[in-house]
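Suppose you are handed a protein chain with no further information: no name, no annotation, nothing but its sequence. What can you learn? This example shows the usual starting point.
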Amino acid sequence: MIDPGERQRALFLHAHPDDETINNGATMARYAADGVGVTLLTCTLGEEGEVLVPELAGLAVDHADQLGGYRIAELAAAMNELGIRDSRFLGGPGRWRDSGMMGTAANEHPRAFWQADLDEICAAAVDVIREVRPHVLVTYDENGGYGHPDHIQAHRVAMAAFDAAADPDYRPDLGPAWSIAKAYWCAIPRSAMHATIEAMRDAGETAFDVDPDSLPPGTPDELVTTAIDARDFLPAKVAAMRAHATQILVDGLLFALSNNIANKAFAIEHYQLVRGTRGTDVGPDGLESDLFSGLSLNAVTGISPQPGSVPAPPGRSIPPQPGSVPAPPGRPASA
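A reasonable first move is to predict its three-dimensional structure. Written in C-alpha cells, the prediction is:
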C-alpha cells in the first residue's frame, strides 16, 4: 500500500485534444475525485482534425487553419468536466503540430510531431516527469492504438522518457531523476469490442451492423491486465466529450444507446501493464482494478514496484533510449 501521507500521482500522455477523454476520461475523473494528482500531457493541438460543426468549418486546415487554437479551449472545457486541474502541452502549446493521418502531406510539415527530433521531445517529457513525479504513466501501445503517426510518436516519447527520467546522468539540468513505478498502455479487449457490437445489434442499433474484423484490431485479451470501473463517472466523460464539439458528435451513434450498453462500452476502461508489478487488487473478472495497486513508498525515488517487475510484453517492442530510435521515414506507407 501507498503511505497515506503520499499523494498518488498519474501522468496521461496523449497525441491530440480529445484522445484523453475517449481513452481514459472516466478513469481520469475517478482518480481526480479521489484526490489523486492527475496530469495530462498533450503532444499537439490537433490542427489537422476534421470539423464536425458546420458553423466552425472555417477553422479547418484547408481554410483559416485556426482549429488548433480553438481546440485548446475545448480541451480546457473538457478537463473542467473531468475535474482535472493540471493540463499541459508538450513543449508548450503549438510547439509540435498534428501530423495528420499516415501517408498524408501533413506528415511533412516542418513542425509535424511525426518528424520531431526524438531527443528533443524526450527531454520535454522528462522535464514534466521530473517536475510532476508521477507514480503511474498511461499512453498508447506501439501502434498508437490504430496507426496514427502522432499516436505512435506519443508512445515512443512516453516510453523513452519513462527510462530517461530515471537516469541521473540524463539531463541533470532538468531536475533530480525520478523513477515511475508503473506504465500502462490503453487497451480495448478484442472480446469486449465484439461483445459491444453484438449488444448494439441486439438493442436495435442497425448502424453497428458491421464486421468486427473491419474495425481497429484491439488488444488480445490475454495482454489486458487491468480494468478500471468508473461507471459513476460516465456522465463526466460524456460531458467532456461534448466539450470536444468540433471532433465528437455526442448525440449520435454510440451515445444514443441505453445506459447499460454505454456503461459497459465507455466507463469500464482497460489497460495493459507493461512496466512495473501487477497489483493484487483484482475485480470479479480477475483483472487488476487499480492503477496504483501493488505500489510501496520509496522516499528517495518515489513509489517503487515490488519485486517481479513486468518486462516488455511478449512479441511487442518497447522503444530503446532516445538517440537509438530511427527517425520516422519522410513519407510512411498508409496504415
